[in-house]
Amino acid sequence: MNKFQTSLTTFLAVAFYFVTVTSVLSQERPNIIFILTDDQSYGLMGCDGNTIVQTPNIDKLAEEGVLFTNAHITSAICTPSRISILLSQFERKHGVNFNSGTSVSDEAWEQSYPVVMRKAGYYTGWIGKNHAPVGEGGYTSELMEKSFDYWYAGHGHIRFYPKDVHDIFNDAIASTQPEIINEGVNDFIDNNERRLKSAIRFLKERPEDKPFMLSVNFNLPHGAGTGSMRLRDTDDTIYKTLYRDLDIPLPDNYIAKVDIKNPKLPADLLRTEDRQTGYNYSNTPQGFRERYIRQLQAMTGIDRLVGNLRKKLKDLKLDKNTIIIFTSDHGLFMGEQGLGGKALCYEKTTHVPMIIMDPKVKRKLKGIKSDALVQSIDVAATMVSMAGIKKPVSFQGVDISGFVKGDKGAIRDYLFTENLWSTQFGNPRCEAVQNKEWKYIRYYKNNTFSASKKIETAKQLGIPINKILYAVHDPDIATYRSFIESSLEGEQPVYEELYNLKNDSQELHNLIKYDQYKLILKMLKVAWEVKIKEARGTGKPKVYRYTNDSHPKGGH
Fold first, then answer.
1. Helix, strand, coil percentages, rounded to 5, for the chain
2. Interaxial angle between packed helices 177-189 and 285-315, expressed in degrees from 0 to 180 and rounded to the nearest 10
3. Cis peptide leading into 211, omega within 30 of 0?
4. Quick one: 357 and 496 in the same domain?
5. Which Pfam families match (predicted)?
6. Can you tell me the distance from the alpha carbon of 249 to that of 409, in angstroms, rounded to the nearest whole number?
7. Which residue among 13, 53, 296, 544 is least crowded, i.e. fewest CB within 10 A of its CB?
8. What one-character DSSP code corresponds to residue 384?
9. How many domains does the chain have?
């Protein structure tokens, strides 16, 4: 062998070594799939106590992982909650909501979990719904699309028939949301699947020598999805007949609108006459039952996708190295206690399912139920930790992956939740702090203008109602900023609630006026003061101006 041949042989051996090592290292890093549903309260799956719904695949996911029975979001409305998940920050820190007049800045977005994981070598994808305005111009900036290796999603609601509202889904074979999302999942994971031509991809195929991180985002069982179900001929039988032969019971604490004698909250605090009309189905038992059946159908459709996904992973021999995380952005009232909608701090809106399944965990640690106080901001911190990536200092969430490995210690003593979406639709600003037994809620004066009066004026002058209700203008930025700071600066609550969650999980009995609970209330107020400061953090929110004045066509 001559010198050249020896050198070539050595070079090839070294090259082969590095390729092999790189491949091994990439496979040592787990793939991660994060599934996020929309408006799914705790109790809509078999594994979290629902005896009607059929969710065998999600139930199996819980049996093979950890089901967190005390998981909560940070803000019970879509946009701020989803940004809290993306950035691992409370809304009071990130500063973006429907009424904020802002979008996430490039600087803040650089510290989101998708960008952090992509920079660390993950092949990333986003499928389904996006309801987080990111970049200069929000939904029109295209910053999110460019931040992923694979994008097959629509901004805003994608409804039950996504092709009706978003062109990107037009080349899917299916017509219903779970099935269209399933096609995107298959396209992302399996290089041999049918290619979706409208999907935005920066590489022709998923590199098999890199770990992947896939975010799957549903617009179900949200009303934008379930409310737009039309029993079309092309619908699967799940969405036509399933559950319709059952006598669906009303919740124990359901109150029809005509039967409300003592409103849950004072009328000048929660103005129910200004509530968005999309929640009017909750006014009657018939309306509740029809919407609930659709929610159950949607959950079974989502469950089928989970089953298909796990089979696909197994067929591709990816199942032993793929972590799956499942949760929701918040819950929803459907007539319980006479309430409809979200944007409150009650359990029905803040308590959500959360499952983490790591296939590498020992058998004896599978199927654990944990009542640890965990929150949606913990998801990003957990994913980067499980991927072996250093947690960004901007993250406010904590790594909860230890529970998957059998840890039983406390993550936090108290949870903090908030609602800063106080608009013409009548919702009050509120904040809550809770431990496993007690919850304390504070409400602030509701000075917002009436939606009913805006609608009346719009009709008189021929102004499009959506334009007058949903437009956000520059002065609204200042109003929202004051919401962030006011309670920290001394604004006092006008109404308070105290609940014993162990004895009164439905929060029916307000104990705030009883002297025997004064010490407990004092303890919770001290905790509130600590937690709200932690939630606020330091510095100003890293946001852009994003109003109808700055971006008239921004799709706010």
1. 40, 15, 45
2. 20
3. no
4. no
5. Sulfatase (PF00884)
6. 38
7. 13
8. H
9. 2
